[in-house]
Every structure is written in C-alpha cells, then in structure tokens.
Write a structure and sequence with these properties.
Shape: globular
Largest sheet: none
Number of strands: 0
Distance between the termini: 25 Å
Radius of gyration: 22 Å
Strand content: under 5%
Structural class: mainly alpha
Helix content: over 70%
Oligomer: single chain
Amino acid sequence: MKNKNLFALLPIIVFLILFVGVGIATKDFYVMPTVVGFLIALIVAFLQNKNNSFEKKLSIVAKGAGDENIITMCLIFILAGAFSGAVKAAGGVESTVNFGLSILPSSFIIVGIFIIGCFISVSMGTSVGTIAALSPIALGIAEKTGFSVPLCIGAVVCGAMFGDNLSMISDTTIAAVRTQGCEMKDKFKQNFFIVLPAAIITILIFIFKASNADIDVTEVTGNLSYNFIQSIPYLVVLFGALAGLNVFVVLISGTLISVIIGLALGCFKFVEVFVVIGDGIAGMYEITIISLIVAGVVALVKENGGIEYIIQFIKSKISGRKGAELGIALLASVVDICTANNTVAIVMAGPIAKEISNEFDVDAKTTASILDIFTSVWQGLIPYGAQLLTAASLAGITPIDIMPNLFYPILMGVSALIFILLIKKRK
C-alpha cells in the first residue's frame, strides 16, 4: 500500500479556503482569479515535504504538467477556441439561433427556448455563450407574451446546461475524457443515455407551464434572418465526433469550414481570419494555464500521499463499484460547489477519480460521465456560478429568481443517481 498523508492535501485546502473565503467576504466569487488561487496552492505544495529537494519537486511538477493527457487536453482547448472564434465570426451563432426560433410552433415557445438552448450549447460547447446568445431573445419573449422572466431565462439556462456536458468541444467534456483516458464518442453515448430522461421530463414540464400560449414568434423577435450554410460547421463537428474521427481532425476541419464560409459570405476579410481565430484561442488561455498548474499541484499532492489518503478514505466508507461511483459523484459535486467552475472541478477531481475507478474497476467512460454530469448539475444550480450570474445580469433579475425554474439540472442529477444505483453496467 502506498503511503497516505492527510497533510499532503493542504495545498487544495488552502485554495478552497481562499477561493470560498474571499467569495463569501466580498459576495463575489469572481473577485479572486482562479489561476491566482491555484498559484498560491502550488507555492504551498512546494513548501511541503522537506525530504525532497526543490529540484526534485520541480521535476515532479514538470512531469505532472507534461503528462500526455494534460498536454493533449490543452491542445484541444486551443483548437476548440479557434473553432469557436471562427464560427462565431462567420455568423454561425446568430443564424443557428434564428433558424431554431423560426421553425418553432408558437404554442411551444418556452419548450422551444429550451430545445434551441440544447442545440446551441451542444454545438458551441459553452453554456455561458449559449446563455449570452439566447437570454436577450428570451427576455423579449417574456416581455411581449406575459410569461415570467425567470421562467423564460430558466429555460435558457436549462438548455445551456444540457450541452455543457455533452458537446464534443466543451472544455468540461474534453477535461473529463482526457483525465479518464476514454473515447469521446463512448462518453457521449453513455452521457446522452443518462441525461435523456431528464431532458424529456423537462420538455413536458415546460409544455405544461406554457400550455396556454398563443403568440407569433416573429412579432416578439423581429426579423429572424438566417443562413443555414452558417450552421454547417457545427454539424460537421457534431457528426464528425460522433463518427469517431480524431478530435484534432474534427476541430481543424470545423475551423477551416468556418473560415471558408465566413470569407465567402463576406463576414470578414482574409486579413481578419487570424484575428478572429486568435480571439477564440485567447478565450481558452485561462483554462489552459489553470490545467497546467492544477496538474502540477496534483502531482505534488500525489507524491506526498494526499491522493492515496482520499482513495483510502473513500474506500473505507464505500464498498463495490456502485459505492465508488457515488463517491466520485460526491467528490465532483463538492469540488464544483467550492470552485464554482465545472471545468476546474473536473481538472482537480479527475486524477483522484481515475485512481478510484481503477481501484474499484469502474469503466472509464462511466467515470467521465459522472464527473461531467455532477459538476454540471451544481454549476447550473449554484447562484454564484458564471451561468446564473450571466443570465441574471442580462435579464435584470437575481440568480435566486431563476433557481425555481431550473428543472433540468435537478432532473439530470436524479437521472444520474438512478443510473448509478439501478442500471447494471458491464465490466
């Protein structure tokens, strides 16, 4: 048995105390940049274990940050950013939103907001981006139809969280898959199977909530002009990933197609191509740096016996594969509640979850799905997360107002628990 050491977890504890403490004290969980908190945690990790020299510790950090999965994950983040920047500049986001709204039956407007949110989030790979794109439209619908603003915005957030843990280019999906070493398509299929019941029930709830609606969508949103060609890059990425193509090939292809469409339609000039791609990549800088620092911190924590302590603690409290899956779900939930960032939570909890899954013979795609789902559950519910804060600020309401209408994140958690407890999984 490896040595276990509770004190080795001090760097992670310091980060959580700083991040949560500053957030509570200032009532703003985004005052302290996450990267600064992890940098302090890295310094604390360097100060531990005097038996190892500074050079030895530096070597451990370098090996942790230079792990094949970590570097691959960072490269995918960069390519996903390039695709996001190119497709947005080419008009893909606006056209896709307008296309969805234009084909909606008026009596299903609230359900339509949710379904469009699902498609946009799966296509864009970002829940916050989906909320930013759809919230102004949902607010206009609420003002013109008499539906409550929290209900319409709640439908947006529910749709955004659907794709947050399913999209092939979502940073959470990338992090979950890379930390567990499974195939993207395998994780997607299992993840989709788990959350589908939650999505169906959410649709039924929104149908009931809006059963008396009778409006003309175009009267609310104005001219819904769109060009279906601008949505093609999203379809290429989605179906390419489902077909099992290499994720690098998929993202590069999607980016090139976006550039070609953008140039052909005059959305930007050739000299601006590098700017729009660069802007997209810049949006991934922070999570890339955080991933490298977290990998270094986790490497030192593991070297000092912290990971083994967690494994042994969970092992002492649970038994069997189902217990291990519940333990991973709890781990992912706690870390996300503390960090208010589901990607960071997965990067932090991923290596620990991997050790637990190896110990209890949990399938890699199952672990990746559990990590992604439960971090998304809480990310879609906590009032201090970027998702609810963004939605609330755009709608002029408070996050607390939206929370009673967040049916999908709650049902997603229930579906995942049923999957863990009742569905028999093959080895």
